[in-house]
Amino acid sequence: MAEDTVFRASALTKIYRMGEVAVHALRGIDLELRAGELVVLLGPSGSGKSTLLNILGGLDTPTSGEVYYLDHNLTTATDSDLTRFRRDHVGFVFQFYNLIPSLTARENVAAVTEIAQAPMRPEDALALVGLGERLDHFPAQLSGGEQQRVAIARAIAKNPSVLLCDEPTGALDSATGIVVLEALEKANRELGTLTVLITHNADIAGMADRVIRLSDGHIVEERGNAVKKAARELSW
Question: How far is Cα 14 from Cα 26, in angstroms, rounded to an integer?
Fold first, then answer.
């Protein structure tokens, strides 16, 4: 395992049982993700992207195979180990922002920093995503793109080594989505956080260091971008 490897997955499978039917979400995934990378997991709905992300993030466990975070085997970890792993090392950004409506932007971020080991100041995290002027606004006073940037600030404020983003622009129009991607790009660049971004939108792949394409539970292509596009250069 290379010394900058953060995740190493080998022969990962995931089978969900729905009544009599077995759904094969992952079919033997081998994968390494390295420190500081911005990786796009690309594929249509049902290709296994979210299942893979949830296993990497300790939200789900594989049916077979192994996944290591540094030298920790997540596959044999207890529930309390996985809870600690998620709390201390992983920031999550989902398609829907999951902000607490009765808390301001600053308070939404502070709710996470209070339980983190070495957090950023909420004000600094919000400034990083361009919301330094909106600290005391409630979610209802923010646009969808601003709410998603608060969610990104909340995820990065605990200084995670890994940022896992599941369709972070899925609920946004193109122009707003690009502003959100710029926030993720900046966090990756300035904090050095391994950032894994799921999307079904092939245009977003241009901003990645590496693109991993999934189909029907398999990795069908893995490629580096010789020239990365800046998020602001993207359009769809």
Answer: 5
Helix, strand or coil, per DSSP, at residue 127: helix
Q: Give yes or no for residue 76 having a pLDDT over 90.
A: yes
Structure tokens at 232: 């602001």
Mind listing the domains of the chain with CATH numbers? 36-63+77-233 (3.40.50.300)
**Digit-coded pLDDT (tens) for 81-108:** 999 999 889 999 998 888 999 999 999 9
Which residues, in sequence order, are CB contacts of 107 under 8 Å at separation 6+? Answer: 100, 122
pTM (2 d.p.): 0.93
Neighbours of 30 (CB within 10 A): 12
Provide the Cα torsion 75, 209, 127, 134; round to 10°. Answer: -80
- Give the integer Cα–Cα distance in Å for 225 and 209: 6
* Residue 78 tokens, joined: 């207890």
pLDDT, tens digit, 9 for 90 and up, residues 144-158: 999 999 999 999 999
Q: Which two tokens stand for residue 147?
A: 């709410």
